Every structure is written in C-alpha cells, then in structure tokens.
Amino acid sequence: MVTIEETWSRVCSGSTTWRYSDLSMEKYTMIYTLPHIKLLRAVSRLKLLQTAITVVILPPVLFFYIQGDIPFFLVSYTTGIALFAGVMLYTASHFFRRVVGMMYLDPSRTTLKVSHLTFWGRRHDIYLPVSDVMTIGDTGDSVNETILKLKRYSSPQTFYFSTHFGRVVDQQGFQKVFGTLK
C-alpha cells in the first residue's frame, strides 16, 4: 500500500488542491458538520434561477421598447434588476463557495477531507494533509469567534467554518487538526 506522503509527493507536486482515487476510496470519520449547508445550497441554486430569469426577461423587454410598446423607464428598471441580480449572484457564490459544510479525517489522521459548495451549489471535496492546515491560533482567530478560518500554510486560499452554528462531531479529531478549543 502506498503511504500518504508518497502519494502526496508523487501526485500533488505543486498543486494547491488534490483529489485522486486512493484518497477518495478511504473511509473517513466526520469531525465537523454544518447542518445549515443544505439551506446555503438551496439559496445558491435559487440565486442562479433568479439570475437566469432576469436574463431571459431582458431581451423581450428590449424588443418591446424598440417596437415602442413600453416606456424607457421599464427598460432601465429591468436592466437594473438584471445587473443587480448578476452582482448578487457573484457576491453570494463568492461567500457560499468558501463555507465548509463537513470535515472528515482519515483513519491515520494525516489527511483532512473538506466539503464545500461549488458555484452551481454542488458539493466539492478537497483533500489536505493535516500538517498543511493551520491551527486556530496560527490563523489569528480566537476560539470565541463565531466564524473561524480554515487556512493552509502552502496556499492563500481561505475557507470558513463556525463552531457556533456548526457541530464538532469528533472532539479529539478536531483538536488534532485545529488545536484545543477552550
């Protein structure tokens, strides 16, 4: 059997996130869950739907304006709503993609599996070596903060999780990765 260190150096030389069959086939133990991730997923998909509807409505409104059937006020109002929906979609997805829904540890406690949402509201798993994950103290956060950062030493990418809204399922595994919570 190939060790995590060998696989890490062979497969992931220089890459910030990695995923391959050796890691995805292992049995992982859940250490953290955010029950509200399903709500965030629904909001993310509804935001996509809202943006699609406003983009579909805009061409007929422009067509009717050219025909002289509707006033300019309605065209500007519809265009403003479409632009606002696009900006809000980008802003919401920027936030939702960084919220951690679940975290798991492999049996050897050397690999952390982090689940978060994609732009489309689907689940995406990334696999991180525990040695690359910063403890809560290293990120500059306090354990009393509502939202905590999941940062790595090798990448500027930041994810967010909350022990107030989320639930630590395995206290020992969580402490192995992030340090003590007191």
Automatic annotation (TrEMBL):
It holds the Pfam family TMEM70. It comes from the Eukaryota. It is a multi-pass membrane protein. Keywords: Membrane, Mitochondrion, Mitochondrion inner membrane, Transmembrane, Transmembrane helix. InterPro entries: Tmem186, TMEM70/TMEM186/TMEM223. Coiled coil: none annotated. One of its GO terms (cellular component) is mitochondrial inner membrane. Belongs to the TMEM186 family. This is Transmembrane protein 186. The chain crosses the membrane at residues 48-66, 72-92. It is found in: Mitochondrion inner membrane. The keyword Aminoacyl-tRNA synthetase does not apply. Its main location: mitochondrion.
